[in-house]
Design brief:
This protein is α+β, with helices and mostly antiparallel strands. The strands form two sheets. The protein has an eight-stranded mixed beta sheet. The chain has an eight-stranded mixed beta sheet with strand order 6-7-8-5-9-12-11-10, with helices on one face. The chain has six helices and 16 strands. The chain starts with 5 loop residues before the first strand and ends in a 10-residue tail after the last helix. Helix content is about 20%, strand content about 35%. Strand 11 and strand 12 form a beta hairpin. The protein has one domain: Roll (2,3-Dihydroxybiphenyl 1,2-Dioxygenase, domain 1), CATH 3.10.180.10. Pfam families: Glyoxalase.
Length: about 325
């Protein structure tokens, strides 16, 4: 069994409408699914991705109205990366972020790649990374109806950074249980801190990396709007997911058991530093219940919630997501 890379990252927003405007109008991603949190249908769950929502391209958000500020710290998913095709695309994005008054840190080097760090309107910490020298997991294809020219568009999820107080427990789960390989390191952003360790799975590269930052000087993160809820890793199919369940259970890691999310099947567990991991299958995908040309335009519900549609939609503030 081998994980194929990053499947999706799920984060928190306090306002679904403003979130939709930022990630589609400014970042140019496609909303491929407008649905609800299946565990709490009173809140939106929005999925942004490439043209058809390929696995490895999904950045998702739960809307928690009234969510307070995030107080960044340890035991957290501290940065999410988004891939772009090359260094030239990063220069485009530097100018675009300036155009929309999005504060950023300028283009820098990160693990032998060019990168551009910024925060969204709620403080979500994001890094755009260049795929110019990437030879690993294949990127997605940006939507040709995006607000961003396709050649500069976001092609998927890049490395996810974890911040933890102790490397070894997380390293053991990544390597000994999930099969990641240690592939290098790069200097920490804070003086006096250990190098950031890089782990990869599958074909490796930007779409299959976890970066682990060790900080002994931080308190535990207090999550809110702008924080990340969990990261999911790609599994080929349901049978392999079932095998992973058996393996993780034998390691005595408490887990959710197999969960049918309709668009994929999942398994959830926390590693010892408290970070929530999910394993998710590549299929069946977001076109299961919507035409691919109209993804994300209406509220989509899995069959087991369909009978509650009227009640669910009454509790949601309408968002016009029909794209011209």
């Amino acid at each position: 069994m081998e994980l194929k890379g990053i499947h999706h990252v799920s984060a928190i927003t306090a306002n679904a409408k403003k979130n939709y405007q930022f990630y589609t109008d400014i970042l140019g991603m496609r909303l491929v699914k407008k649905t609800v949190n299946q565990d709490d249908p009173s809140m939106y769950h929005l999925f942004y991705a490439d043209e058809v929502g390929r696995p490895g391209t999904d950045l998702t958000f739960f809307e928690i109205k009234g969510a307070g500020h995030t107080y960044p710290g340890n035991n957290s998913i501290s940065y999410t990366s988004l891939r772009v095709a090359n260094d030239q695309a990063l220069k485009y994005w530097e100018e675009r972020l300036d155009q929309f008054d999005v504060v950023h840190d300028g283009i820098s080097d990160q693990f032998n790649r060019k990168a551009l760090s910024f925060q969204d309107h709620e403080g979500q910490r994001i890094v755009l990374v260049s795929d110019q020298s990437n030879q690993g997991v294949e990127a997605g294809i940006p939507w040709d109806k995006s607000t961003v020219p396709q050649k500069f568009g976001i092609t998927g999820l890049g490395p996810v950074r974890l911040t933890v107080p102790d490397l070894e427990p997380t390293k053991r789960v990544l390597q000994d249980i999930l099969g990641f390989r240690e592939s290098g390191s790069y200097p920490a952003y804070e003086k006096g801190q250990p190098d950031i360790q890089v782990f990869e799975t599958g074909e490796g590269g930007t779409g299959a990396e976890i970066h682990v930052e060790v900080r002994d000087d931080l308190s535990k993160e207090r999550p809110g709007r702008g924080s990340v809820h969990h990261v999911a890793f790609r599994v080929a199919d349901y049978q392999e997911l079932s095998n992973w369940k058996d393996k993780i259970s034998k390691e005595r890691l408490a887990n959710s058991g197999l969960v049918d999310r309709y668009y994929f099947q999942s398994l959830y567990f926390r590693e010892p530093n408290g970070i929530l991991f999910e394993l998710a299958t590549d299929g069946p995908g977001f076109a299961t219940d919507e035409d691919v040309n109209h993804l994300g335009e209406n509220v989509a519900l899995p069959p087991f919630l369909e009978e509650k549609r009227n009640e669910i939609e009454k509790n949601l503030h309408p968002i016009n997501t029909t794209r011209k």
